[in-house]
Amino acid sequence: MEIEQGRGNTPAESPFQRVMPGIVTASTDEVFALARKSSLWPLTFGLACCAIEMISTFMPHHDLDRFGIVTWPTPRQSDLIIIAGTVVKKMADPIKLLYEQMPDPKWVIAMGSCATNGGPYYRSYSVVMGVDHIIPVDIYVPGCPPRPEALMDGLLKLQEKITADARARKLG
Amino acid sequence: MTTEEQGPESGPDSEAKRPAPITAPKGRRAPDAPTVEAALTPSGEALAALLPDVLAPFELEIGADIDEVVCRVAPEHVAEVCAALKSDTRTFMKYLRLITVVDYEENDQEFEVVYHLYSLEHQHKMVLKARVPAADPALPTVTTVWRGADWYEREMHDLFGVVFSGHPNLVTLILPDGFEGYPGRKSYPLHDYDEW
Amino acid sequence: MPELPAQPTPPTRIDNDHGGTDMWINMGPQHPATHGVFRMELALDSELIVDAISHIGYLHRGSERLFENEIYSQIITLFDRLDYVSNFNNELVLVMAVEKLMSLEVPDRAEYIRVILCELNRIASHLVFIGTFALDMGALTPSLYTFRDREKILALFEATSGARMMHNYFRVGGVKQDVVDDFPQRVNSLLGELERGIDEVDQLLSHGEVFVERTRGIAVIDGETALDWGLTGACLRASGVAYDVRVDEPYSVYDRLDFAVPIGTAGDTWDRYYLRVLEARQSIIIVRQAIQQMEPGPIQTKVRAIARPPKGEVYAHAENPRGDFAVYLVSEGGESPYRLKVRPPSFCNLMPLRDLLIGHYVADAVVILGSLDIVLGEVDR
Fold it and tell me: How far apart are CA B54 and CA C135, in angstroms?
């Protein structure tokens, strides 16, 4: 049986490839975004209960390595910070300092209800009502604490966001 | 007794950021709540009988709460009483379980400092209580008796402003530096948070 | 009882002006080996630690003040979040305090369910300790094994309470709902897997030469001093003091169960580590017995939906994975406590850190801190 070019699951013949075989064109923003999203290095930084679930997510049962996500203990080489837990007023300045130490581009995930809006401690005198009062947040992961699956979903959403942002930048 | 007025917060009120002075909603506090009955174990009764002997020089008021012997002393004697309880071979209270402060400012203008002690040798447990005036809450430190009292006293200093005189390092422990007010006290507004 | 090693007299530090040739280094609050947001400053003389200052409070959430404004069933949810590695054990202490105040009798089946879940939680907590302790020393592999086994325990917890970590399952006078039908079978097969898992990690780690070199004789504390500092749990028993709340003041149904309390001799870091391995094995024995003794029956005493204990004061405590966890509850007869103070074992276990660190190498600092097994949610509350 002969396979007809351009039908079924074979790609259509491209005149472009005939002229310049093996060449792909894309905007640099999109290529960088692909690289960035495929190797996110979150800072090893746990605050409270959510940190245990975050560690569970990194451990073999859920295995974040397959998304290219590897923890890194210093902010200077990380590009993602996961705020996993309650942010209290005493911790607010260190968190801001950590965020400012990270090189651009950088992203923030607020994990759990405490980091989102104070959660069960919304009446407390010493808790910051959400980490977005201190640093800008890209993704909010709901839950108290969120399941590892929820955090993984948040990370995948962040990957989508990184590519979508690059595309939007090209258009704008 | 104005027990009706110092009740806890209700659910819906908590939505407001800085609500008016806290008033008890109906039904949250029983006006004539029953009091729990004390029933000391034999070992507790033995300890209660022993205490006046061990602490002979001090004025004591011995009672009981459920299964614990409660001993009230004057605040200025706390350190000496604790030292006596720890060193006396009949009590041997070597394990300091807990130091805490209970706020009775509204009714009695007093704070109650509570020490929970335990003796591993005799398996005796007891509660030592001292009341200090809320206007000038000060009493001697027990860090000289148990080293484990160190952080408890610093914490209580942070939260209630109780001064433990003689403490080697009575500085801020758990609150941020420069925090104003004593958030453990009931008079401290619970909803007092600033938007950052 | 072993003697404390001779320690250099530390310089006392009142302000930043320490002079001399020391170097002060800062560790935390963001440091992978501080198990949360603990911060310490270390004064070094070449590689030796000569002084240390601990800073806590980076997770002070004001829980004790919040307790005074919530009804008891709401406080259970906040207790879950205190020591967030052993949630069931925390809940147990609170409900025990309220039950003691109300003189409630809890049905046997509920007590057995509680004990089984608490002991499984102890194993889960010790597994986290073993994994992170090895991680502190640079051994990544054991943590992969321990977290694999912990997931299996969490799966059972989820089947029972509906949540992996924050269960909110114990109630005043019983438990929320009965366990799943095949609970005994599930637990038994889980125990077999856990036994193998613990043995595996034990063989992998405990007697390795490098591991023993780094932990033997490090941060020795003798029994008298440990008790003076208020140390409890494995930290105290490693120093040779046999104090376990489950044995000394039995609560729940522990008086019907037969188990041993492992006691250490040297009081050093290795003992503190190995006691937890032994304790996890004892927990398996406890759960086996409890499963056998558990019989069908009611799981909840009849009690007002919103508990209203009488006026009075109560002190209830239990043996948590980290030590003697206690609750001092003052009730004025309302639906909320007048004062609820938690005795956090991690808080006390952390206190002697300065004494333990002084005289050791800076590389041992994380190992010593790790061996105390602190959870900052409980230290700061």
Answer: 50
Q: Is C222 on the interface with B (CB under 8 A)?
A: no
- At CB < 8 Å, which residues of chain B contact C? 3, 7-9, 14, 28-30, 33-36, 65-66, 68, 94-98, 100, 102-103, 114, 116, 120, 123, 125, 127, 146-148, 150-151, 159, 172-176, 183-184, 186, 188, 190
Q: What would the pLDDT profile of C174-195 be if each residue is shown by its tens digit?
A: 888 888 888 999 999 999 999 9
Q: In this structure, how many other beta carbons lie within 10 angstroms of the beta carbon of residue C26? A: 12
CATH number of the domain residue A127 falls in = 3.40.50.12280
The 3-state DSSP class for residue B65 equals strand
What is the CATH class of C71-380? mainly alpha
- How far does C184 lie from chain A, in Å, by closest CA? 24
Q: How many domains does chain A have?
A: 1
Range of the domain at A84: 28-171
Distance from CA of C261 to the nearest CA of A (A): 28
Residue A101 lies in a domain: yes
The answer to the question of residue A39 being in a domain is: yes
Token pair for A74 = 């210093």
Give the integer Cα–Cα distance in Å for C71 and B71: 30
In terms of Cβ atoms closer than 10 Å to its own Cβ (0-12, 13-18, 19+), residue B122 is middle
**Domains defined for chain B, CATH in brackets:** 38-165 (3.30.460.80)
Name which of C26, C27, C30 to mutate to probe chain A: the one with the most chain A Cβ atoms within 10 A of its Cβ. Answer: C30
Answer with the residue of higher pLDDT: C70 or C45.
Answer: C70
In the B/C pair of chains, how many CB contacts fall below 8 A? 127
Query: Terminus-to-terminus CA distance in chain A, angstroms?
Result: 48
Q: Which residues in chain B come in under a pLDDT of 50?
A: 1-29, 196
What's the rounded mean pLDDT across residues C189-211? 90
Map out the domains of chain C as residue ranges.
71-380
What are the start-end ranges of the E strands in C28-84? Answer: 39-45, 48-55
* Strand C323-331 to C339-343 pairing: antiparallel
So what's the pLDDT on residue A6? 59
Matching residue, tokens 């420069």: B178
C-alpha B67/C-alpha B48 separation (Å) is: 11
Q: Residue B194 has what pLDDT?
A: 53
- A44 Cβ under 8 Å from any chain C Cβ: yes
pTM of this structure:
0.85
**Residue A7 in domain:** no
Nearest to C96 by CA among C63, C118, C122, C121: C118
Q: From CA C327, how far away is CA C251, in angstroms rounded? A: 14
Report CA-CA distances (Å) from B56 to B52, B53, B81. 5, 5, 10
Mean pLDDT value across residues C295-318: 87
The residues, ordered by sequence, that sit 6+ positions from C191 with a Cβ below 8 Å of its Cβ are: C284, C287, C288
Which two three-digit tokens encode residue C94? 């609170």
Q: What's the CA gap between A114 and A121, in Å, rounded?
A: 7
